[in-house]
């Protein structure tokens, strides 16, 4: 839907308010007009009845005057009729004026018809015989056939004898026509006698009953004849048209005459004025709406359309991925200008986000690469340690067996030395893979580095200026002190190699709080409180490509034979394994800074004395269950234990070891590898084994593991003998485990 269409819809919606007001006004006007029209209807009926009363009273006065006229006191019929004819010309409201003899025969009349009529059957004649006042009866005249109100007056002698009956026929049709015109033909007038005979019918409005017809059984007549009737009555004809009728209040004259005067009006006519005003208001509103819609359309086309076109062009460019698109100034005021600025800001933000996403993708790729290399190096170190265990142990056997042959004894010693150097190499690999055994302690890193200051200065040499910025009251951390020393030495040595011609190196320690925006070398945010150790040099620095690979194992820019490429990788693995993170900044010609962050210690750890520090016997005679998946290592360990005097049972995996434990016989200690195939590692085996034999002691061995090993409840801290190990280390750890107090 276009903006212009939306604007038009808004205008139309806005016009609903005045339209609603017009409608409300129409309803109010309609209701008030109906009430006023109904009131006017009743007033018109009463006014007609009042006028008829006046006409009756006037006729009575005329009768009183005529009764004393000498021209009527004669038996000359022609003279009498001529006199009455002259009187009627002065009173055209009468169809005729005549006299009736006491015997009911017509004597003279103003019409001069010379007809002979017997009027004894007329009700007004019968009443006049016994009455002394005016008698009324609505009928159809026998001479004219018109509906008239007969106004009869008995003329009596002084003695009271009836001389004649003076009769005036009041023309009801002319009377109704007069009032119909007076009412501007807006209302219908209906005259009905007491029997329901229609004397005067409405001239229009769809009235169907003719003059002389009867409405005696109709709803309208029942309404007119009911004494305690309601004020108005709606009547619907056969064609579905509805009229509202009102009956004049009954005066003594109309009551005596038995005459009902009804005034009605079509229901549609009641609200015609209100409808007319509604049409006028709607026409004005329609014209105003059309003018407003035209103005909005022109404004939208001329002013808004051009600006919307600029917005649409910008949106299309953004949709095609052109985040460099911008809407150039000038921008219009108001919402469209704000929208243009917002769109420009959005494009700028999207451009920045695209750059940030690209950077995060690069960091994620680096993190995944480092993690994959860690898995690889950990696996290699594990298998290598198994081999070194066999090599180192057999070298010890050879050295003992060849003690009398100096040359062969030296060769056996060289083999053992080479195996130990290989062990150092695997420790570096495990440090990078974050799988080296750590012995963390609660330490003050600043104090530890302060103690190392002389060693670090000697390592750097006199041509490098060394500065230490150690903050007081740094937070405590849980870190392996030996590994911290090694990591710091590696960083200092790397900095020394970057300063062949001298320079400055700074070691800084302080408390820091990291936010979500502070990330490590892999782009991972790790907010929290840390103790930061930073080593900054003013050396040659590194390019971005070299810096991105600096922590990879075996990556080095040094000459062959001058570095293994494991220094920074070991630092990285040690810090990550300690729960911290590493950051590095470097730029060619501006030096480098490596920051190590160690988590603040929430609760000081509790330490047990190291098993290796206890004084133990070198050998024994207990039964030991050896569980090792590597055949050569298992054979070597079994042979060494037997040499130390122990009784040995061996199993290649956890399930086989459990089968042996379920059999009868004494087994004092379980000596198991931590990582084994088949789905059951050493800790799980220890849990099930101690469940079968609660008194069983446990000693773990591993080529690599993440410290601490999760041991079953009740075993306490795990005792781990790291591969490769010498016979003395094996004997010492065994005695320490066997000598431990019962659980």
Automatic annotation (TrEMBL):
Query: Where is the protein found, in the record's own terms?
Result: Membrane
Q: Pfam family of this protein, just one?
A: HAMP
Q: What are the EC numbers?
A: 2.7.13.3
UniProt KW keywords: Coiled coil, Kinase, Membrane, Phosphoprotein, Transferase, Transmembrane, Transmembrane helix
- Regions that span the bilayer: 282-304
The primary location reported for this protein is membrane
- From the UniProt record, list the coiled-coil ranges: 343-370
Boundaries of every Response regulatory domain copy? 623-738
Q: Which residues carry this modification: 4-aspartylphosphate?
A: 673
Reactions catalysed, semicolon-separated, are: ATP + protein L-histidine = ADP + protein N-phospho-L-histidine
InterPro entries, per database record: CheY-like_superfamily (IPR011006), HAMP_dom (IPR003660), HATPase_C_sf (IPR036890), HATPase_dom (IPR003594), His_kinase_dom (IPR005467), HisK_dim/P_dom (IPR003661), HisK_dim/P_sf (IPR036097), Sig_transdc_His_kin-like_C (IPR004358)
A single BP term in Gene Ontology: signal transduction
Domain HAMP, by residue range, is 302-355
The record's Gene Ontology cellular component field reads: membrane
- Per the record, the domain of life is Bacteria
> Residue limits of the Histidine kinase domain?
379-602
User: A Gene Ontology MF term for this entry?
Assistant: phosphorelay sensor kinase activity
What this protein is called in its record is histidine kinase
């Amino acid at each position: 839907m276009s903006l212009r269409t939306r604007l038009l819809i808004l205008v139309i919606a806005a016009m609903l308010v005045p339209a609603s007001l017009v409608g409300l006004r129409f309803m109010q006007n309609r209701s008030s007009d109906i009430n006023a029209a109904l009131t006017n209807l009743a007033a018109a009926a009463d006014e007609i009845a009042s006028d008829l009363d006046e006409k009756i009273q006037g006729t009575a006065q005329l009768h009183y005057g005529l009764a004393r006229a000498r021209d009527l006191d004669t038996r000359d019929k022609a003279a009498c009729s001529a006199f009455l004819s002259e009187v009627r010309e002065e009173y055209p409201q009468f169809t005729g004026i005549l006299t009736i003899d006491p015997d009911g025969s017509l004597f003279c009349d103003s019409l001069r018809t010379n007809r002979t009529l017997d009027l004894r059957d007329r009700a007004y004649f019968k009443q006049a015989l016994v009455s002394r006042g005016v008698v009324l009866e609505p009928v159809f005249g026998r001479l004219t056939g018109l509906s008239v109100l007969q106004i009869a007056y008995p003329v009596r002698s002084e003695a009271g004898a009836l001389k004649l009956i003076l009769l005036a026929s009041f023309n009801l049709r002319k009377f109704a026509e007069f009032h119909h015109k007076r009412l501007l033909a807006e209302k219908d007038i209906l005259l009905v006698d007491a029997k329901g005979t229609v004397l005067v019918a409405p001239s229009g409005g769809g009235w169907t009953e003719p003059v002389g017809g009867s409405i005696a059984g109709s709803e309208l007549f029942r309404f007119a004849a009911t004494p305690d009737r309601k004020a108005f009555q709606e009547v619907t004809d056969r064609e579905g048209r509805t009229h509202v009728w009102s009956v004049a209040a009954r005066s003594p004259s109309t009551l005596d005459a038995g005459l009902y005067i009804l005034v009605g009006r079509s229901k549609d006519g009641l609200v015609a004025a209100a409808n007319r005003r509604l049409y006028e208001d709607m026409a004005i509103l329609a014209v105003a709406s059309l003018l407003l819609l035209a103005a909005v359309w022109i404004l939208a086309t001329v002013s808004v359309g051009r600006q919307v076109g600029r917005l649409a062009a910008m949106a299309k460019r953004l949709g095609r991925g052109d985040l460099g698109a911008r809407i150039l100034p000038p921008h219009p005021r108001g919402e469209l200008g704000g929208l243009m600025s917002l769109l420009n800001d959005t494009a700028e933000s999207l451009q920045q986000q695209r750059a940030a996403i690209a950077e995060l993708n690069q960091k994620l790729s680096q993190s995944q690469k480092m993690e994959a290399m860690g898995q690889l190096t950990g696996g290699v170190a594990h298998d290598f340690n198994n081999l070194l265990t066999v090599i180192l142990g057999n070298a010890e056997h050879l050295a003992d067996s060849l003690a009398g042959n100096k040359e062969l004894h030296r060769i056996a010693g060289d083999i053992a030395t080479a195996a130990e150097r290989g062990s150092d190499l695997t420790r570096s690999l495990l440090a990078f893979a974050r799988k080296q055994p750590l012995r963390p302690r609660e330490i003050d890193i600043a104090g530890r580095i302060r103690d190392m200051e002389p060693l670090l200065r000697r390592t750097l040499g006199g041509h490098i200026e060394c500065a230490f910025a150690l903050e007081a009251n740094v937070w405590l951390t849980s870190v392996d002190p030996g590994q911290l020393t090694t990591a710091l030495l590696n960083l200092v040595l790397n900095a020394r190699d970057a300063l062949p011609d001298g320079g400055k190196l700074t070691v800084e320690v302080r408390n820091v709080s990291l936010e979500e925006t502070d990330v490590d070398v892999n782009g991972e945010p790790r907010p929290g409180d840390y103790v930061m150790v930073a080593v900054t040099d003013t050396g040659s620095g590194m390019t971005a490509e070299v810096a991105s690979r600096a922590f990879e194992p075996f990556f080095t820019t040094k000459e062959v034979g001058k570095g293994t490429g494991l220094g920074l990788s070991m630092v990285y693995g040690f810090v990550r394994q300690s729960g911290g993170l590493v950051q590095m900044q470097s730029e060619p010609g501006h030096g480098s800074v490596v920051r190590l962050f160690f988590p603040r210690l929430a609760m000081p750890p509790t330490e047990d004395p190291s098993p290796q520090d206890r004084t133990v016997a070198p050998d024994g005679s207990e039964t030991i269950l050896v569980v090792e998946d590597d055949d050569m290592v298992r054979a070597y360990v079994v042979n060494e234990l037997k040499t130390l005097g122990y009784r040995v049972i061996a199993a290649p995996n956890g399930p086989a070891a459990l089968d042996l434990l379920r059999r009868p016989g004494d087994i004092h200690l379980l000596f198991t590898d931590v990582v084994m195939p088949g789905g059951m590692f050493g800790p799980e085996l220890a849990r099930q084994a101690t469940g079968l034999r609660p008194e069983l002691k446990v000693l773990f061995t591993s080529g690599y593991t993440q410290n601490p090993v999760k041991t079953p409840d009740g075993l306490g801290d795990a005792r781990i003998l790291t591969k490769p190990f010498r016979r003395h280390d094996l004997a010492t750890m065994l005695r320490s485990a066997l000598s431990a107090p019962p659980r």
